[in-house]
Amino acid sequence: MEDVVSLTVGQPDFVTPWHIREAAIDSLEQGKTYYTSNSGTAELRHEISRYLARRFDLHYDANDEILVTVGGSEAIDLAIRACVDDGDEVIVPCRALSATDLSLPWRAALRFFSKQRKRTASR
User: Fold this and answer.
1) How far apart are CA 45 and CA 54, in angstroms?
2) Residue of 73, 76, 79, 71 lying closest to 99 (CA atoms)
3) What is the pTM (predicted TM-score) of this model?
4) Would you give the end-to-end CA distance of the chain in angstroms?
5) How many helices (H) and strands (E) does the chain have?
6) Would you call 51 helix, strand, or coil by DSSP?
7) Rounded distance between C-alpha atoms, residue 109 and residue 87, angstroms
């Protein structure tokens, strides 16, 4: 279909721009082939902090207030972990996090409702 934005997990509907591919090639040639910190490199966090200040006049400490994740599912998981306490109930109306399949070992008691469960319960 034309004019439809693909929301497939991890699959953009465009070719990665050359300057990004070139930066990846440069990193490989410099031997930067190792995992970084789970919070992102200090250089990236500081650049994000500078960008937010410059573009939106928002000021965050790059060391304590900025976190880089590998994707949306990880970011959602971390946000939920930061906002809920033991025993809290989190209701997710549908299965939406395919990468995590909603089975992450969250520290809160989680209750999930989905169309599938509703159909199963009504039988």
Assistant:
1) 14
2) 73
3) 0.57
4) 37
5) 4, 2
6) helix
7) 5
- Sorted by sequence, the CB contacts under 8 Å of residue 86 that are 6+ apart come out as 107, 108, 109
Note whether 100 and 79 are within 8 A (CB): no
In this structure, which amino acid lies at residue 101?
A: D
CA 101 – CA 105 distance, rounded (Å): 11
pLDDT one-digit tens code per residue, 56-76: 999 999 999 999 988 777 888
Give tens-digit pLDDT for 15-66. Answer: 899 999 999 999 999 998 888 887 889 999 999 999 999 999 999 999 999 9
The string of DSSP codes covering 64-96 is TT----SSHHHHHHHHHHHH--TT---EESS--
